[in-house]
Design brief:
Layout lengths: L2 H11 L5 H16 L17 H5 L4 H10 L3 H35 L11 H4 L2 H4 L6 E9 L5 E10 L2 E6 L4 E9 L4 H10 L1 E5 L3 E6 L6 E9 L3 E10 L2 E14 L5 E14 L5 E14 L5 E13 L5 E5 L7 E8 L4 E5 L1 H4 L2 E7 L4 E3 L4 E9 L2 E8 L8 E8 L4 E5 L3
Parallel strand pairs: 2-6, 2-8, 3-7, 3-9, 8-9, 9-10, 10-11, 11-12, 12-13, 12-14, 13-15, 14-20, 15-21, 16-20, 17-21
Antiparallel strand pairs: 1-4, 4-7, 5-6, 16-19, 18-19
Helix pairs in contact: 1-2, 2-4, 2-5, 4-5
């Protein structure tokens, strides 16, 4: 048993602190060890540690809490503990953001000298290894036409980015950028021919990257924007971008990469990544499911049902009114960061809230709130209530938000 844990137990034995306060100190001690660390998807490695000044801000969380316990009133201890929880949440989020940006930047860069000093664990990520050593690049372009109004797009690659964009043309156009290795020119030509498989018909298009170690296939596809698209888009190491489609449904999956969704309308869409951000802008969907780790989530637009879950990242949602007067619901969960909901005036006066957190603050900056539950205990906060206009409004919103170590804020957008 280390000295810090022994000291905590000794303080309990001497009656200086309660068992609940001891548990909080032990959590703070573990937080000091974990701050700035995280999981690198399924590829091993950890998030680089923050500098001493960033991660500790001077004395450690444990030391500050211990001092507060030994020379405090209960109210003072509560303030200090909440301050430390907020500090820890910000540090973890900053580390996660720094790491996800690092991975994204390294994956996108095509300049080998910039990668010479990569940490060893990053070099093991296949798509990063793609930029190191000798390789050959080939670009293939294809185009065709879809005969039906409903199209299934199955796009997958082990290593590489995927971009799908709607355009006003009546045909589709695809660019495949292939990076392969080979001992000689003939071997390279053979590998270029077999590294990706393309199949198509009048109502579907299937593209499958068959990459080996340190190879990559990047897919860029432009499609007629006025058709209904069912998406099955996935990559292991790379970003995914879906834009400008008028009727869409399906799933998007990546790791070690960012997901960008913009100017989309449709029914149900699910997006998942790890070690990356998810950004949604100008959306109009019936259901949107977002899931990441070590990255933030932002969503601006209308979704009748929005579920967003992350760890070590913040969540910010700006709901908009849909074309029809419908009730929207937000289900937002994060662990070590904050949640921000920005409501337009029409929804700010017609909302129902169920908010709970640990050591972070809960701020509801709305008028005419009727509170059913308003609790503020040590390490636990809960707010449940509704605005006076919620029961009679046609366009209204329900917000469920949970954050373990971060604040929750519900704001009204100024008109």
């Amino acid at each position: 048993m280390n000295d810090e844990k022994f000291l905590i137990l000794k303080m309990v034995e001497e009656g200086k602190i309660t068992s609940e306060e001891a548990a909080a100190l032990l959590d703070a001690l573990e937080a000091d060890k974990a701050a700035g660390l995280g999981k690198l998807g399924d590829h091993g490695g950890t998030i680089p540690t923050l500098s001493e000044a960033e991660a500790r801000g001077g004395a450690s969380s444990f030391e500050r809490l211990r001092d507060a316990l030994e020379h405090r009133e209960d109210a003072e201890f509560k303030v200090v503990l909440e301050e430390e929880a907020r500090r820890f949440a910000k540090n973890v989020e900053a580390a996660a953001e720094k790491f996800s940006r690092l991975v994204e930047e390294r994956i996108e860069k095509e300049v080998k000298p910039a990668l010479a000093n990569l940490p060893a664990f990053l070099a093991k990520i296949p798509v990063i290894g793609e930029w190191v050593g000798e390789f050959s690049t080939a670009t293939e372009e294809r185009q065709g036409a879809f005969l039906d109004s409903t199209i299934r797009l199955e796009l997958s690659t082990d290593n590489g980015s995927i971009e799908v964009q709607g355009w006003p043309e009546s045909h589709y156009h695809m660019v495949l950028k292939k990076k392969v290795r080979g001992n000689d020119e003939e071997a390279v030509r053979e590998r270029v021919a077999e590294v990706v498989q393309v199949e198509e018909s009048g109502n579907w298009l299937r593209v499958k990257g068959r990459t080996g170690i340190n190879e990559a296939v990047h897919i860029k596809l432009s499609v007629p924007q006025d058709k209904l698209y069912e998406l099955a888009v996935s990559t292991s190491n790379g970003r995914i971008t879906i834009t400008s489609l008028k009727d869409v449904m399906g799933s998007i999956t990546t790791s070690n990469g960012r997901v960008t969704i913009k100017d989309l309308q449709g029914t149900r869409l699910a997006a998942r990544t790890s070690n990356g951000t998810i950004e949604c802008d100008n959306i109009n969907l019936q259901e949107l499911i977002l899931n990441t780790s070590n990255g933030r989530i932002s969503a601006d637009g209308f979704a009748q049902r929005l579920e967003a879950r992350t760890s070590n990242g913040s969540i910010e949602v700006t709901p908009r009114l849909g074309s029809a007067l419908q009730e929207q619901s937000l289900d937002l969960h994060t662990a070590n960061s904050g949640i921000q909901v920005n409501l337009p005036p029409a929804l700010a006066g017609a909302c129902w809230l169920d908010l709970s957190g640990g050591f972070g603050s809960i701020n509801v900056n709305l008028n005419d709130m009727l509170y059913h539950i308003k609790e503020d205990y040590f390490g636990s906060k809960r707010v449940q209530g509704e605005t006076k206009g919620y029961g009679t409004a046609n366009a209204r919103i329900r917000v469920v938000a949970r954050s373990a170590n971060g604040g929750i804020t519900i704001d009204k957008i100024q008109s």
